[in-house]
Amino acid sequence: MSALRQSASSSASEDDQRYAGMDEKKRKRMISNRESARRSRMKKQKLLQDLTGEVSRLQAANKSIATKIEETAERYAICAAHNNVLRAQTMELTDRLRYLNDVLTSSGLAADVADPLLKPLQTPCPMQPIASSGFFKF
């Protein structure tokens, strides 16, 4: 900061010598304008440095998010493939069960075989009311 003041004071003294022949008002205005322009350039430089740092930080965050998206997409692809395998196995087992039920039905060995896979929302045994006892009192 002291180096900045020294350069400012040395530039001010150089400006004073350079503009000694001009009238006082015009000379002070030119010196003031030069100092204002210098401050403006320093402010722009600091803003540029801040924005450059922000760009770097955002690029790193973007790269991290892109990596997470890729990992998630890979896990999704693995799960989708596994799900397809399970669906195929379910279909195969359902077909086998139908075949076995047809064999049993046609041979007359079993007249009523419960098939929970063919009717997943139907329970294998009907719901019967549960008799309440006096054990729990409300």
TrEMBL record:
Residues 1-46 are annotated as: Disordered. Keywords: DNA-binding, Nucleus, Transcription, Transcription regulation. Residues 15-25 have a biased composition (Basic and acidic residues). It comes from the Eukaryota. Its main location: nucleus. Coiled coil: none annotated. The keyword Magnesium does not apply. The lineage of its organism: Eukaryota, Viridiplantae, Streptophyta, Embryophyta, Tracheophyta. The keyword Transcription regulation applies. Residues 23-71 form the BZIP domain. It comes from Datura stramonium. This is BZIP domain-containing protein. InterPro entries: bZIP, bZIP_plant_GBF1, bZIP_sf. SUPFAM superfamilies: Leucine zipper domain (SSF57959). It is found in: Nucleus.
